[in-house]
């Protein structure tokens, strides 16, 4: 009698990040740039230092590049093409490590920080000697939740072709879109965002072997689309971020988690690791209150916020990397990843460590 083969799932084989070499403390960036930009905005200093960010990485030095005012979109994209390629490739190369590159069949990448064609993913595949028949998927301008559609692309790819490996990358170079416009909303944004790239390599493995992506759930909060936006202007990209976002997320999170966990026969009490996108301290605090979590339950999220800032789509993967590196979850523990962005769109994913 034939035995049924064990179920296989999308499994994380490796994860690695890379950051620009320029690192500034919040104090250094405020004194070198933000104090001058926002000298006429009341409470700007308090706003910046209430973000929870201690240090960030910058692809270019806004203190220098923007000292004479704003820069054109073309100038910003040229830096993205050059420096973004270098940093993203470092992340991908580290994640590939000793894995068999001939098995890589797909490459999914997202960024909200710049555009060019061919994209960075093509040049990285070429430079690293990946297959010429590699399938590339680029996810652009979806905001801070964009790592989730990239991960879903990887999940679908290994389900269809279980012998292949998939590169899933999120890279953000938000400092290339900073502005000197004296707008109170921009004080918060420029006090939060930083630059980083993170890559995971996903393969198919038997059920229960390694960190596995079990399922995802997406929720569109259609009536809140005006609360967050990421628009293109002549002098670069510009974000809109409403202070009401944390309250909206807290209002909907329980229903979203029921839809994510219920089909697996799980509930919130079964989740021991909360990998929440640190869009800002009020988001983390609001969700912690609603879910009745103590701060240690989201330690990795708070750490990434403090040491990297909000790195857009990359942040969810940085939180996953930090969780694996420092918290070292036990085999069989469940975790929930969550991200939020324009829409408002809420992405969630159930993982088993």
TrEMBL record:
Coiled coil: none annotated. Keywords: Transferase. Pfam families: Chal_sti_synt_C, Chal_sti_synt_N. GO terms for biological process: polyketide biosynthetic process. Residues 219-352 form the Chalcone/stilbene synthase C-terminal domain. The active site is at residue 144. Residues 3-206 form the Chalcone/stilbene synthase N-terminal domain. The keyword Cell inner membrane does not apply. One of its GO terms (molecular function) is acyltransferase activity, transferring groups other than amino-acyl groups. Belongs to the thiolase-like superfamily. Chalcone/stilbene synthases family. This is Chalcone synthase. It comes from Melittangium boletus DSM 14713. The lineage of its organism: Bacteria, Pseudomonadati, Myxococcota, Myxococcia, Myxococcales.
